[in-house]
Design brief:
The structure is a single chain. The protein is mainly β. The chain contains 1 helix and 30 strands. The termini are close together.
Length: 315
């Protein structure tokens, strides 16, 4: 892949533009959740239940985090609406979770979907992780004197939790039992300044936001490398937000100030930059959460545009 700007045609929006081989294609933009539900009546009933009959909030409010289940269900954390939106595009179904037996969601920001259908929700204001089963029934809460839990991921059957407030990564089993932790505040190897999200394959990649870099480590937290740096040019970061990997191990990083996502190889060499500031397809205003499914479909929360953009990696 090579760095390039977008090229629009009557049929597709791709990066890089012709005559180079296209690697990223824009598929769809969802801004009005009315597009998802199969019937207006069903959608209206959901919104009436949530918002007392108002028709002014038929969409996202402040979407930030995202996860996609193995069955293709999309979960989007929306702290502005104090809820998690649930989209099933194949079945044209939409629903929300705003309250559980443990109480109301206050500031859901991070999501992780397990292979058994369990959904893990980090709520930065409640300072805990809420766990729901595949039917969205409440199961249990993970508490560990968190200060500000944000990004969460399931890696090798364990739950990794980024505590931005403590500049640490906590590791639990999927039943909520504490295993270990690593990290402290600083700018050195293995130290963090406002970490916000992580992902993994052979290495764990951690968005170390206010050090303006991606740090790599092994599953125990041992430092293995880094890339990036402060700046507003390709290959650097101004406000990195989230991170994901495609099937070939390419590293995707969203940047809320550069209004794009950048793609790197597994060692941090820049391959491609996608997007620019704006509200058109393939443009962003503060992109935040990113998730990539097993089919290399790329889901990006376009936060200030209050929408979801969907792309695919073309091998």
């Amino acid at each position: 892949m090579e760095q390039a700007a977008a090229q629009s045609s009557s049929t597709e929006l791709v990066w890089p533009p012709p005559p180079q081989k296209a690697r990223i294609q824009h598929l769809r933009t969802i801004s009005n959740l009315n597009e998802v539900a199969s019937e207006q009546g069903f959608f209206s009933r959901v919104m009436n239940f949530l918002f007392g009959g108002t028709e002014s909030r038929h969409g996202f409010v402040q979407p930030v985090g995202i996860a996609v289940s193995q069955s293709g269900v999309i979960y989007i954390a929306d702290p502005g609406a104090n809820c998690v939106h649930i989209l099933n595009l194949d079945e044209k179904e939409y629903s929300v979770v705003s309250e559980t037996k443990a109480g109301k969601l206050k500031s859901p920001v991070g999501l992780a979907s397990a292979s058994n259908g369990y959904l893990y929700i980090s709520d930065s204001e409640r300072k805990e992780i809420l766990v729901l089963d595949e039917d969205l029934s409440f199961q249990f809460v993970i508490r560990n004197n968190f200060v500000r839990p944000t990004g969460i991921q399931i890696i090798n059957g364990k739950l990794f939790i980024v505590d931005t407030g403590q500049n640490k990564i906590f590791i639990f089993d999927l039943n909520g039992k504490f295993i270990s932790e690593f990290g402290r505040r600083g700018s050195g190897d293995g130290e963090f300044n406002y970490p916000v999200q992580l992902c993994a394959r052979n290495s764990i990649y951690i968005v170390d936001a206010l050090n303006f870099r991606i740090q790599m480590c092994d599953v125990s937290g041992k430092f293995a490398g880094q890339f990036g740096g402060i700046g507003n040019s390709a290959g650097s970061f101004a406000n990195p937000k989230s991170i994901a990997l495609d099937s070939e191990g390419h590293v995707y990083v969203t940047d809320a100030l550069m209004d794009n996502f950048q793609i790197f190889d597994s060692q941090g060499q820049l391959l491609l930059v996608v997007g620019s500031k704006g509200n058109g397809d393939g443009e962003f205003m503060s992109p935040s959460g990113i998730a990539i499914d097993a089919n290399d479909t790329i889901y990006i929360v376009d936060s200030l545009n209050k929408r979801l953009q969907i792309f695919r990696y073309m091998k």
